[in-house]
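Annotated sample (chain length 216).
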Amino acid sequence: MAKAANMALKTLEELTARRTAWSKVRTWIEQAGKRVEVLPADNQSSAATLLALQISTATPLGALADQTGGLLVESGWLRILGSGHERLPWGLAEWNGLQADHQPVPDKLILAHDVLGGFFAREHNKKISYFSPDTLNWENTQLGYQDWLAWALSDDMGDFYEHFRWRGWAKEVAKLEPHEGLLVEPMLWEKGPALSRRKRTPVPIVELWGRYQDSR
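Output written by the structure step:
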């Protein structure tokens, strides 16, 4: 979701001048307890992310990018992007077009990915959609970012993934690095046995994204 070339870009001072939304986001994280791991932010990466994507810290998205390298929810099942971290090297800026070899998704801002290669993104209309690995389609959640983030940090998130999980998933997922996902074979959109009996191979999440986009 690149900004128009003729729009004046805001400075870092302008993007951080208003009261930050971090206290609100931090409250959601604290209420989630041990379900959420906060990856620390690097000041240089945070500043670069805010400037590149022109997001203000007055918004939950900007506050998250400013204060965290990302969030790992439920043993790392869901990875909510911040400004990046050594364990989650691709943050908001990288997933959205600031890598020379990576093209952003038109009219979408990638916000998070899950261990099976599902992705959440903000659409042009500001609503959040989910790229589902079992249909290869983007599905609108009808939520704005603030409501989506509060949901992702709540117990309700587990209900959303109930049909994707298998016995022992938490231990298996916890062994992965946050930049990895599970390649499931047969693929999730193909007929086959239950997910628990399909082959699951750790691969870089970038590779999983590429496979799924090629398969579309």
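Annotation: Confidence is low (pLDDT under 50) at residues 1-6.
Annotation: The CA atoms of residues 70 and 82 lie 4 Å apart.
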